Amino acid sequence: MSVREVVFPAGRQALYEKNRYSPAVKSGGFLFVSGQVGSREDGSPEPELDTQVRRAFQNLNAVLGAAGCGFADVVDVTVFIVDPEQRFERIWSVAQEFWGEAPYPNVTAVGVTWLYGFQFEIKVVAKLPEPASGRN
């Protein structure tokens, strides 16, 4: 059995250890990022929806950055939204601040009834940058 290569963003390891999961795992040239929510440093949710979505993307970008990549390396996105009929358009307008230019990653949006006090969660798979070769 291989050992998981876990990626931790700076300053949040205690939160992940408390909840007993890895923020991201490297495998086969990809980075599999756990669902990121709009949590403050102590793990509590941002109360306002737009701020919660921005914080979720900031938390996601911290995980991606800790692995040496960014949102441009993301190939697959899954978003979970409580009451998507009421919140999707508002969430999607905030998400565009972080989305970047085309070509875009593929996306699956899932409506859910509960996210542990949050209204939005995003999980992604990113292609890790190729290691620099020693050849010229």
Automatic annotation (TrEMBL):
Q: Do you know which InterPro entries this protein is assigned to?
A: RutC-like_sf, YjgF/YER057c/UK114, YjgH-like
Annotated signal sequence range? none
User: Which Gene3D superfamilies is this protein grouped with?
Assistant: RutC-like
Family annotation (PANTHER family): 2-IMINOBUTANOATE/2-IMINOPROPANOATE DEAMINASE RIDA, RUTC FAMILY PROTEIN YJGH
Q: What is this protein called?
A: RidA family protein
Q: Which organism is it from?
A: Massilia agri
